[in-house]
Protein backbone atom coordinates (compact mmCIF):
# COMPACT_ATOMS: atom_id res chain seq x y z
CA UNK A 1 0.00 0.00 0.00
CA UNK A 2 3.04 2.28 -0.37
CA UNK A 3 4.02 4.05 -3.56
CA UNK A 4 6.63 6.57 -4.65
CA UNK A 5 6.90 9.09 -7.49
CA UNK A 6 8.19 7.88 -10.82
CA UNK A 7 11.35 9.98 -10.50
CA UNK A 8 12.08 8.62 -7.02
CA UNK A 9 15.34 6.69 -6.78
CA UNK A 10 14.90 3.75 -4.42
CA UNK A 11 18.52 2.58 -4.34
CA UNK A 12 21.96 4.13 -4.33
CA UNK A 13 25.64 3.73 -3.57
CA UNK A 14 27.63 5.90 -1.20
CA UNK A 15 31.13 7.19 -1.72
CA UNK A 16 34.19 5.39 -0.40
CA UNK A 17 35.23 6.57 3.06
CA UNK A 18 38.48 5.81 4.86
CA UNK A 19 38.35 4.59 8.45
CA UNK A 20 40.82 7.13 9.74
CA UNK A 21 39.16 7.54 13.12
CA UNK A 22 39.05 5.02 15.94
CA UNK A 23 36.67 4.99 18.88
CA UNK A 24 37.84 2.52 21.46
CA UNK A 25 38.82 -0.61 19.54
CA UNK A 26 36.47 0.03 16.61
CA UNK A 27 37.36 1.79 13.36
CA UNK A 28 34.86 4.50 12.43
CA UNK A 29 33.95 5.71 8.94
CA UNK A 30 31.85 8.88 8.63
CA UNK A 31 30.12 8.57 5.28
CA UNK A 32 27.83 11.61 5.80
CA UNK A 33 25.86 10.53 2.74
CA UNK A 34 22.57 12.46 2.46
CA UNK A 35 19.52 10.96 0.77
CA UNK A 36 15.86 11.84 0.53
CA UNK A 37 12.90 9.52 0.23
CA UNK A 38 9.26 10.37 -0.43
CA UNK A 39 6.57 7.75 0.03
CA UNK A 40 2.79 7.82 -0.23
CA UNK A 41 0.49 5.55 1.77
CA UNK A 42 -2.99 4.68 0.53
CA UNK A 43 -5.29 3.16 3.11
CA UNK A 44 -6.99 0.13 1.61
CA UNK A 45 -8.54 -1.75 4.53
CA UNK A 46 -9.98 0.62 7.11
CA UNK A 47 -10.70 -2.03 9.72
CA UNK A 48 -9.29 -1.52 13.19
CA UNK A 49 -7.24 -4.73 13.09
CA UNK A 50 -5.30 -3.73 9.98
CA UNK A 51 -2.12 -1.79 10.73
CA UNK A 52 0.09 -0.27 8.03
CA UNK A 53 3.51 -1.82 7.51
CA UNK A 54 6.12 0.91 7.30
CA UNK A 55 8.80 0.87 4.58
CA UNK A 56 12.08 -0.91 5.28
CA UNK A 57 15.55 0.37 4.37
CA UNK A 58 18.06 -2.35 3.46
CA UNK A 59 21.78 -1.63 3.36
CA UNK A 60 24.99 -3.48 2.60
CA UNK A 61 28.48 -2.51 3.75
CA UNK A 62 31.47 -3.29 1.50
CA UNK A 63 35.18 -2.80 2.09
CA UNK A 64 37.81 -1.89 -0.51
CA UNK A 65 41.51 -2.49 0.16
CA UNK A 66 44.65 -1.06 -1.41
CA UNK A 67 44.61 -3.70 -4.18
CA UNK A 68 41.00 -2.82 -5.13
CA UNK A 69 39.59 -6.02 -3.68
CA UNK A 70 35.99 -5.94 -2.46
CA UNK A 71 34.66 -7.78 0.56
CA UNK A 72 31.19 -7.90 2.08
CA UNK A 73 31.44 -6.60 5.62
CA UNK A 74 27.81 -6.66 6.68
CA UNK A 75 24.11 -6.53 5.94
CA UNK A 76 21.37 -4.79 7.87
CA UNK A 77 17.92 -3.28 7.70
CA UNK A 78 15.82 -0.79 9.57
CA UNK A 79 12.13 0.09 9.63
CA UNK A 80 11.56 3.77 8.93
CA UNK A 81 10.26 5.55 12.05
CA UNK A 82 6.50 5.92 12.27
CA UNK A 83 6.70 9.23 14.17
CA UNK A 84 7.95 12.55 12.77
CA UNK A 85 11.05 14.29 14.03
CA UNK A 86 14.73 13.48 14.44
CA UNK A 87 15.72 9.85 14.94
CA UNK A 88 19.21 8.43 15.59
CA UNK A 89 19.24 4.70 14.88
CA UNK A 90 22.23 2.38 15.23
CA UNK A 91 21.69 -0.90 13.38
CA UNK A 92 23.95 -3.94 13.94
CA UNK A 93 25.25 -5.74 10.86
CA UNK A 94 26.19 -9.32 10.06
CA UNK A 95 27.65 -11.23 7.13
CA UNK A 96 27.46 -14.85 5.96
CA UNK A 97 30.55 -16.95 6.53
CA UNK A 98 32.02 -20.19 5.26
CA UNK A 99 33.50 -22.72 7.62
CA UNK A 100 37.14 -23.61 7.35
CA UNK A 101 40.51 -21.92 7.28
CA UNK A 102 40.74 -22.02 3.49
CA UNK A 103 37.70 -19.78 3.12
CA UNK A 104 39.16 -17.19 5.50
CA UNK A 105 42.52 -17.27 3.72
CA UNK A 106 40.79 -16.81 0.38
CA UNK A 107 38.86 -13.84 1.76
CA UNK A 108 42.01 -12.24 3.18
CA UNK A 109 44.36 -12.70 0.20
CA UNK A 110 42.02 -12.82 -2.82
CA UNK A 111 38.99 -10.95 -1.63
CA UNK A 112 35.41 -11.82 -2.17
CA UNK A 113 33.08 -13.51 0.27
CA UNK A 114 29.62 -15.11 0.33
CA UNK A 115 26.91 -12.66 -0.67
CA UNK A 116 23.13 -12.62 -0.57
CA UNK A 117 21.42 -12.94 -3.93
CA UNK A 118 18.30 -11.28 -2.50
CA UNK A 119 19.01 -8.53 0.05
CA UNK A 120 15.47 -8.88 1.43
CA UNK A 121 16.70 -12.11 3.02
CA UNK A 122 18.01 -9.85 5.78
CA UNK A 123 14.42 -9.76 7.08
CA UNK A 124 11.76 -11.73 5.23
CA UNK A 125 12.51 -12.64 1.60
CA UNK A 126 10.19 -11.13 -0.95
CA UNK A 127 9.59 -14.60 -2.41
CA UNK A 128 8.59 -16.16 0.92
CA UNK A 129 4.92 -17.20 1.10
CA UNK A 130 4.86 -19.59 4.06
CA UNK A 131 4.04 -19.15 7.73
CA UNK A 132 7.44 -19.98 9.27
CA UNK A 133 10.82 -19.00 7.89
CA UNK A 134 13.65 -21.36 8.81
CA UNK A 135 17.27 -20.22 8.68
CA UNK A 136 18.66 -23.48 10.00
CA UNK A 137 22.17 -24.11 8.68
CA UNK A 138 22.73 -20.49 7.62
CA UNK A 139 25.95 -19.37 9.34
CA UNK A 140 26.69 -15.72 10.03
CA UNK A 141 28.86 -13.56 12.26
CA UNK A 142 28.39 -10.06 13.65
CA UNK A 143 30.61 -7.42 12.11
CA UNK A 144 29.70 -3.95 13.38
CA UNK A 145 26.99 -1.32 13.18
CA UNK A 146 25.78 1.56 11.03
CA UNK A 147 24.25 4.74 12.47
CA UNK A 148 21.52 6.63 10.62
CA UNK A 149 20.31 10.14 11.34
CA UNK A 150 16.77 10.40 9.96
CA UNK A 151 14.60 13.50 9.74
CA UNK A 152 11.01 12.38 9.20
CA UNK A 153 8.17 14.58 8.03
CA UNK A 154 4.56 13.44 7.79
CA UNK A 155 1.71 15.10 5.95
CA UNK A 156 -1.87 13.89 6.01
CA UNK A 157 -5.24 15.31 5.14
CA UNK A 158 -6.62 13.66 8.26
CA UNK A 159 -4.24 15.77 10.37
CA UNK A 160 -5.56 18.96 8.75
CA UNK A 161 -9.18 17.94 9.20
CA UNK A 162 -8.55 17.12 12.84
CA UNK A 163 -6.82 20.46 13.40
CA UNK A 164 -9.61 22.40 11.73
CA UNK A 165 -12.22 20.50 13.70
CA UNK A 166 -10.31 21.20 16.90
CA UNK A 167 -10.21 24.92 16.09
CA UNK A 168 -13.92 24.97 15.30
CA UNK A 169 -14.73 23.19 18.54
CA UNK A 170 -12.54 25.61 20.47
CA UNK A 171 -14.26 28.62 18.92
CA UNK A 172 -17.66 27.13 19.72
CA UNK A 173 -16.61 26.54 23.31
CA UNK A 174 -15.32 30.11 23.55
CA UNK A 175 -18.61 31.45 22.26
CA UNK A 176 -20.55 29.26 24.64
CA UNK A 177 -18.38 30.45 27.50
CA UNK A 178 -19.04 34.06 26.56
CA UNK A 179 -22.76 33.42 26.31
CA UNK A 180 -22.80 31.73 29.70
CA UNK A 181 -20.99 34.65 31.33
CA UNK A 182 -23.30 37.15 29.70
CA UNK A 183 -26.38 35.19 30.72
CA UNK A 184 -25.16 34.95 34.33
CA UNK A 185 -24.76 38.74 34.46
CA UNK A 186 -28.29 39.15 33.08
CA UNK A 187 -29.64 36.74 35.70
CA UNK A 188 -28.00 38.71 38.51
CA UNK A 189 -29.41 42.00 37.19
CA UNK A 190 -32.88 40.53 36.81
CA UNK A 191 -32.78 39.14 40.37
CA UNK A 192 -31.72 42.53 41.67
CA UNK A 193 -34.53 44.25 39.80
CA UNK A 194 -37.08 41.76 41.14
CA UNK A 195 -35.82 42.23 44.71
CA UNK A 196 -35.98 46.00 44.30
CA UNK A 197 -39.54 45.85 43.00
CA UNK A 198 -40.63 43.62 45.91
CA UNK A 199 -38.99 46.03 48.32
CA UNK A 200 -40.84 48.99 46.81
CA UNK A 201 -44.16 47.11 46.88
CA UNK A 202 -43.64 46.17 50.51
CA UNK A 203 -42.78 49.78 51.36
CA UNK A 204 -45.90 51.08 49.64
CA UNK A 205 -48.14 48.58 51.49
CA UNK A 206 -47.00 49.79 54.91
CA UNK A 207 -48.98 52.59 56.78
CA UNK A 208 -47.64 56.10 56.36
CA UNK A 209 -47.37 56.81 60.12
CA UNK A 210 -45.20 53.73 60.63
CA UNK A 211 -42.91 54.78 57.79
CA UNK A 212 -42.55 58.32 59.20
CA UNK A 213 -41.85 57.01 62.74
CA UNK A 214 -39.15 54.65 61.43
CA UNK A 215 -37.57 57.48 59.42
CA UNK A 216 -37.51 59.86 62.44
CA UNK A 217 -35.99 57.16 64.65
CA UNK A 218 -33.21 56.55 62.15
From TrEMBL:
Q: Where does it primarily localize?
A: cytoplasm
What are the subcellular locations of this protein?
A: Cytoplasm, Cytoskeleton, Cilium basal body
Its keywords, alphabetically, are:
Cell projection, Cilium biogenesis/degradation, Cytoplasm, Cytoskeleton
The UniProt entry, under PROSITE patterns, shows: C2_B9 (PS51381)
Q: Name one GO biological process term.
A: cilium assembly
Please report a single Pfam family linked to this protein: B9-C2
The GO cellular component terms are: MKS complex
Q: What protein name does the entry list?
A: Meckel syndrome type 1 protein
Classification lineage: Eukaryota, Metazoa, Chordata, Craniata, Vertebrata
